[in-house]
Amino acid sequence: MGFKCGIVGLPNVGKSTLFNALTKTAAAQAANYPFCTIEPNIGEVAVPEPRLTTLAQIAGSKEIIPARMNFVDIAGLVRGASKGEGLGNQFLGNIRECDAVLYVTRCFVNEDITHVEGRIDPLADLETVETELMLADLESLEKRIPSLEKKTKQSDKDAKLSLELCLEAKKLLDEGKPARLFIPPKEDQKAYDMLQLLTAKPVLFVCNVDEASAATGNEFSAKVETYAKAHNAKAVVICAQMEAELAALKDEEAQEYLEAAGLDEPGLNKLIRNGYSLLGLQTYFTVGPKEARAWTIHQGWTAPKSAGVIHGDFEKGFIRAETINYEDYVAFKGENGAKEAGKMRLEGKEYIVKDGDVMHFRFNS
Length: 365
Description:
The protein is α/β, with parallel strands linked by helices. It is built from 14 helices and twelve strands. Helix 1 (15-23) runs parallel beside helix 8 (240-247) and helix 4 runs antiparallel to helix 5 (157-174). The longest helix is centred in the middle third of the chain and has 32 residues, at 122-153. Residues 26-38 have low confidence and may be disordered. Keywords: ATP-binding, Coiled coil, Magnesium, Metal-binding, Nucleotide-binding.
């Protein structure tokens, strides 16, 4: 399952530096000029999961395999991108292919790094980016609606639903509001997602601060956090430059660096976990002597569907799932101890898998 979070923002706000730190590579060229990232760089990262290490230690697993997700470094948007300014059409297309969007805002002052609009104002930056995405969505809807209206007159039920959803989204966009504020009925969510509206995607606001503000944030990041809260979203404070330097250090050196900065863990860990949560994802585990592995599923998935991420045959031939709560697995020192304590449950096809479940699937091949 490949889940993509697109890293979006104006030029020179730290997107490529953040991407480099995330992937621990220099795959994205970080340079002090607009459009240094022309093609979207995609990096796969491990989701930080301390529970997995604990499970592996208890089971004596030879290998640890974490869950993974993808981050896409998308070149900087500028005012007029929706009309093709600054390679805008190409960049907007790259965003459309992502499942969620991370808005990186510049929350630091550095005269050596040019700001494309000549000022440090993260809320204005957000407004510029969001406006361009909303204008692109409006253009997309205005092209689509006439065709749907014709099909609706021919009693096309699918077209009727799509038209209704388009009109709901357009109403918000006409008011200067993003399409994600419209919450369709659960049964219509898939059809709404099929519209591929840029501003319908879930968002996380990333405040890129200077190193001195990495632990506490600053006046700029405080404004973004207030803005995010008002828009029912989350904000993460991170120093991209520091994270890039941390990524190049050995574990002991990195820990000393973190402690000196007043941090208990890298900001990237928070960012990845928030991105994971933003996509509505959760983790279950399979554990044994050979490997301890984290599997990614959507929240609300049943046991058979969750088994299917391991192999399609697991879902087709599902019989039952032997399930142990993570806390019980740890408290009773593994599968055998949990069994003896009566903590292993046999769950059927209707069971909704919970985050942290340790599972073993029985199926007909």
